Amino acid sequence: MKWSEIRIHTTHEAIEPISNILHEIGAGGVVIQDPMDLIKEFDSKYGEIFELDPNDYPEEGVYVVAYLPVNSFLGETVEEIKQAINGLIAYDIDIGKNNITISEVNEEEWATAWKKYYKPVKVSEKITIIPTWEEYEPVESDEVIIELDPGMAFGTGTHPTTVLSLQALEQYIEQNDRIIDVGTGSGVLSIAAALLGAKEVQAFDLDELAVKISKINAKLNKVDNRITSKQNDLLKGVRDQVDLIVSNILAEIIVQFTNEAFDNLKDGGIFITSGIILGKKDEVKTNLIEAGFEILETNQMEDWISFVAKKPSPRS
């Protein structure tokens, strides 16, 4: 089978929305080629994470690379992708150069390409993410292992926004907590929550394919009995009182449901938000405070921000 590689030269800010566009259009996986990865230092005891060729990377910005099957609809699909990316400008998202190139690869090359990018990586004190094809022995007795297939997942858990979310989850989750994951994607945050001790996780995503994939990944990690994945538009129609809400999603989307997040948390409940580009930090922070939240932590990794906010308990 022939595959077409579509390569989009864009900005860090646009990675998440463009990746989502590509997945929704039916891309067979997405790879992010960020030149910052060439100079990162990783703890060698977890093995090599990347085997990278500098020639594959832009001097500035990033490449978002996806694979589409070559068929009679390919031209229309590419035009649809271009229009959707240009539409991000309306949301004040910087799409950068937005140069798009197309090339053809065969299925064997496509399959091999995935495996050179992903190796086991420890993303927090306890959590290690491994691709399904890798053998891995835990280093610590309390290590939490999450298995993902990057060829089908919406993200592999190693993007800074996901790492920030996982680190906050590890710190704030308590045994038997009830959790809501808004915009679950691959389900990695829901899986982490369950493995860290949550007794019940509701995972919501507007994309039906994301819901399907999150269910597959939950089953792969043997936590599907504690995770319920559903198609839903953010928190619309949700009436609950949970201990913690986590959302790794665009800043522009976060500000649309902070009031609903506040209402769906118990007093003293925690709201973890990530996916926030540095330039949108103040906008999201102000929005959280106006909704009634108290900011407990502001964390940064590269150009990305996450907040840990708390719904105050009423004064006695």
Fold topology:
Elements: E1 2-10, H1 15-24, E2 30-33, E3 62-69, H2 74-86, E4 99-106, H3 107-117, E5 121-122, E6 127-131, E7 144-148, H4 160-172, E8 178-182, H5 188-195, E9 200-205, H6 208-220, E10 227-231, E11 242-248, H7 251-254, H8 258-263, E12 265-277, H9 281-291, E13 294-301, E14 304-310
Parallel strand pairs: 6-7, 8-9, 8-11, 9-10, 11-12
Antiparallel strand pairs: 1-3, 1-4, 2-3, 5-6, 12-14, 13-14
Comma- or semicolon-separated keywords:
single chain; about 325 residues; alpha/beta; Alpha-Beta Plaits; Rossmann fold; 7-stranded mixed sheet; 4-stranded antiparallel sheet; about 30% helix; globular
How would you describe this protein?
The protein has two domains: 116 residues, Alpha-Beta Plaits (2-Layer Sandwich); 190 residues, Vaccinia Virus protein VP39 (Rossmann fold, 3-Layer(aba) Sandwich). The protein is 28% helix and 29% strand. It has nine helices and 14 strands. The strands form three sheets. A seven-stranded mixed β-sheet has the order 10-9-8-11-12-14-13, with helices on both faces. A four-stranded antiparallel β-sheet has the order 2-3-1-4. Strands 5-6-7 form a three-stranded mixed β-sheet, with helices on one face. A hairpin with a 4-residue loop joins β5 and β6. α4 runs parallel beside α5. The longest helix has 13 residues. It is globular and about 60 Å long.
